[in-house]
Amino acid sequence: MLREAIEGLTEKELRFKPAPDQWSIHQILIHVTDSEVSSTSRLKRVLAEDEPMLNSFDQDAWARNLGYDVLDREQYLLLFKILRSTMQTILDNLSDEQSERVGVYPDQQRFTFKELLYYRVEHVRTHITQIERVKQAYRKHLAGTNDSRSIRSAVFLVKMRDSLDSIFTEPKQSSKINEQVSCIQVYL
Ligand code: NI
C-alpha cells in the first residue's frame, strides 16, 4: 500500500516539502519504516515477555539526526515489507489470550497487543493520507510555477512586440530580432 501511494511519482515530487518544517514523501516513507522497526519490537516484547516496559522514539530527532534525505528509500520500503510479512506469520497463529497481553509505557499507560496492533494499521493509514496531502501541495506548487511562467512569458512577448515595433522604424536591428524569435521558439 505504501508503494501504491507513491506509484508514478517523480523523484522531484518525492523530495518536495510543502513547508520547510514539513516532511517530504521520501522522509515520510523512511519514518513509517523506522516506526515499524520500533513497533515490531514492541509487539514482539508484549507477546514474549510479561508486561514489558515499552518505549517510544523521538520521531523528529530521528528524522533530523539520521540523515533521512540520503537514506535508500528502496531499502526502507523493502524493510517495511519484510517486517510486516514476518509479523504476519506470528499474527496467523495468534490466540485470543495472546491478543489480550499487555505492555506498559513509562507513564503507566497500559495497552493490549490488540490495541497496539490497531495503532500500527492506523499509523500507516495516517501517513498515506499525509502523502496524498503532499501530492496535492506539489500540484498546487507546480500550478503556481506555471502561472508565474506564463506571466514571464507574457512580459517577454510584450517586450518582443515593442522590439518588433522599433524594428520597422529601425531596420538595422533585424539580427537582434531574429535572435529573440528563436528564443521564443525554444521556450514554446
Ligand atoms: Ni508517524
Automatic annotation (TrEMBL):
SUPFAM superfamilies: DinB/YfiT-like putative metalloenzymes (SSF109854). Gene3D superfamilies: dinb family like domain. Residues 2-131 form the DinB-like domain. This is DinB family protein. It comes from Paenibacillus taihuensis.
